[in-house]
Amino acid sequence: MAHFAACPSTPVPETTAPHGADVAAGHGDDVVARHGDDVVATHGADFVARHGVLTRGYGHRPDPDDPGAVLAMPIVLHIPKQDPPARSALLEAAAMATVALCLDPRVGTGPDGEPGPWREPYLAWTDARIRKVSRRARGAQWRAAQEVDGITVEHRGAQARALVPGPVGLLDPRISRLQIGGTDLPHDTPDDPPAGVPVLWIDAALDMTVGKAAAQVGHAAMLFAGSLDAEHAGAWAESGFVCAVRDADPGRWRHLTKRVADGTAVAVRDAGFTEVAPGSVTVIAVPG
């Protein structure tokens, strides 16, 4: 079972750090000295620093006055008209792509300390609210989205691409033309999650669209990675950030809420800009 470095005793808003997180502002660079030589030797000092960014939380800067300057991570969901993927598989791919981008070497620093090509926009985004906007694509639109900086994950027959965050008013036209709402996918009933795989439980009572749910499981994957110590975060990275996404009925949700209170699970509390009421707990992540 994975080990939490700092589990919250209350649900974690998507805009703040987990309670007890021990990394101050500094974009994770100072966290390397806090870990043993074995962790650094196994995963690299830059990985430990990139992971440190996730442990320190979000929302350190207020939103800009200009709505077009608000920062967001676009998530592109591949939903072909013929033979669309299972909803749970697509959400898993979205979660995996999101956290993969957050821990990618391009958001860190090079061997000589030079910033990676995605570092500046990524850190600006994590300093603010970690907003995400999901869009759907198929055919030529999906192929064009592959040309925009980001990471695509293929998982269980589903594909999702997390893109480098940036101002919503300056979105690449290959992405801005993609539809945000519209096509949804039916809820499916996949098998029980494999042993040892983290599970991102969605509150089924909220009845979120697949686009909204994709953003929420992306939040959850980031918070879960930040709640792990660097060693277990590195092990999860080596697995490709494999996770399971499942719907929780009211009984299971009550149990999961207790786990959050006990500090053995991590929760996403939504700001309520779309679909759900402000403060709604949308996803609870538990270790495998």
Automatic annotation (TrEMBL):
Region spans: Disordered: 1-28
GO MF, one annotated term: peptidyl-tRNA hydrolase activity
Keywords for this protein: Hydrolase
Domain of life: Bacteria
UniProt enzyme class: hydrolase
E.C. number: 3.1.1.29
Annotated catalysed reactions: an N-acyl-L-alpha-aminoacyl-tRNA + H2O = an N-acyl-L-amino acid + a tRNA + H(+)
Name of the protein this chain belongs to: peptidyl-tRNA hydrolase
